[in-house]
Amino acid sequence: MSNTLVITNLNVSIGDKPILKDFDLTIPKGEVHAIMGPNGTGKSTLAKALAGHPDYEITSGEALLDGESILDQEPDERSRSGLFMAFQYPMEIPGVTIANFIRAALNARLPEGEELNAPDYYKALYAKMDMLQIDRKFTSRAVNDGFSGGEKKRCEILQMAMLEPKYAVLDETDSGLDIDALKVVAEGVNNLRSENLGVLVITHYQRLLNYIVPDVVHVMYDGRIVKSGDKELAVELEEKGYDWVKELAGEPVA
């Protein structure tokens, strides 16, 4: 299916332990979907499996990005196909500046023998940094090296803005952010919303969804989605708590 990220009957294990169980999800371009659920239910496993992390074994299922299967692709191929991942704990890359890191990623997407025009690249980079309230001096700093939590998350969204993916998965982007940093990061994501981008936001808390208002909210439990609805579902979940999720999954609540 074109213009859609479709995940069907996805089963993922870590070692011998099944985590995702016949997981299904469809994200059309132009929509923001949110997944909420308790710890250990498989939210971050979904992100890492889609990214191609070697510790997460996909035992069955499919993931189609605009009709193209990505599960047999290497992580860099998935990225070039149009999938972007922002993780809860972004990696530090000492010795590699933000400017050079993003430039290398963009050059890797160009036909062989072509390179970015440097003045045009920096013009675009500075515009995106201004949008995210990132000091331009950060271009010469090593990626995430010595960054605060908020700076790391802004750097992730900066990469997303520059790479212009087809689909973005934001895994607990609100983790470790104070309210001011949260607003800036959310505003950056909102500025990138378009009919050409599908977004999956993974979060524990409804507060992020006050700023990045989703089109669809999914509640996840024990490796699968147990309920989907509009943005009001996140409010209901916040009010009723995760015992309610167990009820939705048909489990007894003490």
Residue fraction in strands: 25-35%
Q: How do the strands line up in the largest sheet?
A: 6-9-10-3-11-12
What is the fold named in CATH at topology level?
Answer: Rossmann fold
Oligomer: single chain
How many DSSP-defined strands? 12
> Please, what is the CATH homologous superfamily?
P-loop containing nucleotide triphosphate hydrolases
Structural class: alpha/beta
For the structure shown, list the relevant keywords.
alpha/beta, Rossmann fold, six-stranded mixed sheet, four-stranded antiparallel sheet, 8 helices, 33% helix, globular
Write the layout of secondary structure elements.
Blueprint: E1 4-14, E2 17-28, E3 32-36, H1 43-51, E4 57-65, E5 68-69, H2 75-81, E6 83-86, E7 93-97, H3 98-107, H4 118-131, E8 142-143, H5 149-163, E9 167-171, H6 179-192, E10 198-202, E11 216-221, E12 224-229, H7 232-240, H8 242-248
Helix pairs in contact: 3-5, 5-6
Write structural notes for this entry.
With 254 residues, the chain is of the alpha/beta class. It has a single domain, classed as Rossmann fold (3-Layer(aba) Sandwich). It has helices at 43-51, 75-81, 98-107, 118-131, 149-163, 179-192, 232-240, 242-248; strands spanning 4-14, 17-28, 32-36, 57-65, 68-69, 83-86, 93-97, 142-143, 167-171, 198-202, 216-221, 224-229. The strands form three sheets. A six-stranded mixed beta sheet has the order 6-9-10-3-11-12, with helices on both faces. Strands 2-1-4-5 form a four-stranded antiparallel beta sheet, covered by helices on one side. A hairpin with a 2-residue loop joins strand 1 and strand 2 (17-28). Helix 3 packs parallel to helix 5. The longest helix is centred in the middle third of the chain and has 15 residues, at 149-163. The radius of gyration is 18 Å and the shape is globular. The protein starts with a strand and ends in a 6-residue tail after the last helix.
